[in-house]
Amino acid sequence: MKVWLLQDKKIDSQAGTFVKKARLLCNRYYNIGRIDKRLYGSFVEHMGRVIYTGIYEPGHPQSGSNGFRTDVLKLIKDMGVSCVRYPGGNFVSAYDWLDGVGPQEKREPRLDPAWRSVETNQFGTNEFMEWSAAAEALPIFTVNLGTRGIEDAASWLEYCNHEGGGRYGNLRKSHGYQKPYNIKTWCLGNEMDGGWQIGHKTALEYGNLARETAKIMKLIDPTIELIASGSSKSGMETFPDWELEILDRLYDLVDYIGFHQYYGGQEKGTPFFLAQSLDMEEYITIARAAITIAKKKKHSAKTMNISFDEWGVWSMDSAFVESQVHEKPWQTAPHISEQIYTMEDTLLFASMFMVLLKNADIIKIGCQSLLTNVSSCIMTVPGGESWVQPIYYPFSHMAKYGRGVVLKSVLKSPLYECEGFGSVPYLDHAAVYNDIDNEVVIFAVNRSEEELTLELDLENFGIEERILEHTVLRNADKKATNLQNHNLLKPEIVDDIQKSDKGIETAVSPLSWNVIRIGVNHHRPV
């Protein structure tokens, strides 16, 4: 078969068709940064069925004596979740942690105004710590700076991390937990810039409160890391003024600034919907600039990193249409916002995740939102089965193979024009060099509804390159889901990688998620 190359299109003379072509260059000596394993985190909030009938369901056939669903725990471990943020989210801003400790039979239910539900408090601090140990995930706690504040945060930290000798360390011991948990990472409130947040504050108010809270928390336990509450989304009117204001007060006391981001907009069409990861890239670029300004203003040698501790694809309008929160409030674990993800949704999810990877030098923590049932990777049936949504697979692939350093690659891709985003590459990607297992991994999304050809050129990785595997997630129907057939959208291994003197070439299916693994022969870490 005779083939000619014409700019960014390959002409197949036999088929008489044009195939878009992308070129990717990766050099071992040029990288962005080393990946922190905490980038592969998730989020558990007292919202809907995330906890009750999600991760915790006493009496379920697959629950142990502690009430933890073992079928869900297995899926979480297979997913590669490294850390989990708890207990919220909007929920935390009206939460009293004391309601969720002590003998379960003595705990009283409370109204949760954030989600207009009834919180039973049968799952609290100690249950979560037991569960996170079972899930093999590091805990990240968020303190209530909405309705509570300094004293509440200090007492909770003492309960969790202090040996004893004071009121709250001794209280933990009286509850049967003799050793402190030594929880390392704590968020100073949740989305405090949002008018929807209970206890919403201005940047000045939050900055002052968070500063005084940080001071006492680090006096109690100087080893902890603190995350300041940054902007709730890129479209906030206060972004980036919020960051400049709070960092002026918090730069010397906190270790991270936290950001959140969700995207919907499926109704605007696939080209626009999938281009939204470019907004996330710009969001992080501006956040970097705000951090740099604060650092220079403080004349500080300290490096401030970013925690993206809530992110995901979440069509808020459609997700809440069937919600009973407003029509039938004050239920326990109501079925709210249980979005069912499509193949199309999965591609944007993967692109958002790759944005985090491509900023691994400054983003050290990431928490996909949420883990079960609400905008989730894992779905459960009360008393019944559990199954995974298609977004589960890009997460598990990146958690498994996204180890080592992110490469500063150069991409030449066909483009399309999209209002609001300008020229958008059809191929989105992130490249990782796993310098322990000696392989280069290319994660890629094809935003096009046509096939792409990808040419890959690896430099300074040695003379021997071994084709390991090409995994693809695809479906002809971009609106396909796993709701009815839980295995409809599932990755497959394809044998379509070719190696030549010019490099490596493979086909990239229309609207697909791809993992391309190439073995290399270098054994010295970058």
Biggest beta sheet attributes: 8 strands, parallel, barrel
Mean pLDDT value: 93
- Fraction in helix: 10-25%
What structural class is derived from the secondary structure elements?
A: alpha/beta
CATH architectural category of the largest domain = Alpha-Beta Barrel
Classified in CATH, the superfamily of the largest domain is Glycosidases
> Can you tell me the CATH topology of the largest domain?
TIM Barrel
Terminal Cα span: 41 Å
SS element count, helices: 11
Q: Return Rg in Å.
A: 24 Å
Q: Widest sheet: strand order?
A: 5-6-9-10-11-12-13-14
Number of DSSP E strands: 28
Q: Would you state the CATH class of the largest domain? A: Alpha Beta
Poorly predicted regions are 1-7, 10-16
* Quaternary structure of the protein: single chain
